[in-house]
Amino acid sequence: MKREIIAILRGIEPHEARAIADTLISAGITRIEVPLNSPDPLNSIAQMLDQAKGRAVIGAGTVLDAQDVARLAAIGAQMVVSPDCNPEVIAASKSAGLLSYPGVLTPTEAFVALRAGADGLKLFPAFKVGLDGLSALKAVLPPDTKTYAVGGVGPDGFADWRKAGITGFGIGTGIYKPGFTAGDVAARAADIASAYDAAFG
């Protein structure tokens, strides 16, 4: 099963990037985001890309401007995730051949993102959107729109979000915090993958 889960590794450092990437890929979580406000994020992303060798989609989060997109494209990153809806970032991402997942909270932002070419919508913070909010939003979005709940969503809620129409999830502190070992991540990734399979399988 292709799991629509993005692991958000805020705070990861380059020396642990390869081991954590391998751990996630082994658990079947093959979308990995390193937020740009992490220590030396481009180095971590480069290490993961080299380690993954095409087995995962790896990119950056907290991408706020087109200059960051250019730097990511230069090292071979594959995905751009943002906390906001910035058409310039979306356009730069698509022009560089990267997947684009901007953050949205309102229908206006959602449609601005889609018109700019976004590949999917990051509902952030998802706990503020809620299940009812997602259901209402899905009623007006194009039916093939991919939506990802990020912020305040964990494996115990996957089934409810699935029923409301979500495509997938971005998981941050539930899968990684600075100081976690590869073993810590492995245990959490296994639980998350299992819950996803139960909800979507």
Commentary on this structure:
Belongs to the KHG/KDPG aldolase family. Pfam families: Aldolase (PF01081). Homotrimer. Helix 1 crosses helix 2 (about 40-50), helix 1 runs parallel beside helix 8 and helix 3 runs parallel beside helix 4 (about 85-95). The chain has eight helices and nine strands. Strand 3 (about 55-60), helix 3 and strand 4 form a beta-alpha-beta unit. It has a single domain (about 5-200), classed as TIM Barrel. It starts with a strand and ends with a helix. With about 200 residues, it is an alpha/beta fold. The protein is globular, with a radius of gyration of 16 Å. It has helices at about 15-25, 40-50, 65-75, 85-95, 105-115, 125-140, 160-165, 180-200; strands at about 5-10, 30-35, 55-60, 80, 100, 105, 120-125, 145-150, 170. The protein has a nine-stranded parallel sheet.
Keyword list:
single chain; 201 residues; alpha/beta; TIM Barrel; 9-stranded parallel sheet; 8 helices; 47% helix; lyase activity; 2-keto-3-deoxy-phosphogalactonate aldolase; carbohydrate metabolism; KDPG/KHG_AS_2; Aldlse_KDPG_KHG
Q: Strand pairing plus helix content: what structural class?
A: alpha/beta
In total, the number of strands is 9
CATH topology: TIM Barrel
Beta-strand content: 15-25%
The level 1 CATH classification is Alpha Beta
Q: What are the low-pLDDT stretches, counting only 5+ consecutive residues below 50?
A: none
Summarize the structure.
This protein is an alpha/beta fold. The protein has one domain: Aldolase class I (TIM Barrel, Alpha-Beta Barrel), CATH 3.20.20.70.
